[in-house]
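just leaving the lab so this will be short. what follows is a protein written twice so to speak, once as letters and once as structure tokens for the fold. can you read through it and tell me how you think this chain folds. thanks a lot i owe you, the record is right below.

___
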Amino acid sequence: MISSERLALFVDGPSLHFTAKSLGFTVDFKRLLAECRTRGVLVRAYYYTIIAEEFQTTRPLLDWLDYNGFTVRTNSVKEFDDGQGRRKFKRNIGIELAVDAVELAKHVDHILLFSGDGDFRPLVEAIQRLGPRVTVVSSMRTKPAMVAAELRRQADTFLELDDLKTAIERTIEESGMRNERDEYS
């Protein structure tokens, strides 16, 4: 029986990609949505990523996600000079994710955050003060661990991504959309 708990899913795309890759699999987002729906009523699913002009391989994945139940949020890569003549790049989707999570917190009972980024610890704490429980999904089984200790400790629950592998792994037969690895290659 599916719980009546209202859920929201927040996916830090680069974090999920690299964590799953470290664990030896790619995520099937259709199966990820189905898995979340077994845990409660999925109110909203967000996917956040950075994009660069020269990497247009992300477009098919983002289009697929957008048409199949995810609200896709993107942020452009910012290029700057480091003061010593070297090109540096700033990639960040944290503010967008934080704003959306705080705004949605009053409408859900539980937030699933697929990220290991320790910068999200204050966000998790703020959401908890608003009422919802927060589950962080990442991995301790990778070398090094892909989840920051402070984020894991702040969460109400920590869910090991490797334990979800059989439920959300992309298999060879399920090739209806581009492979997630195309987004970051």
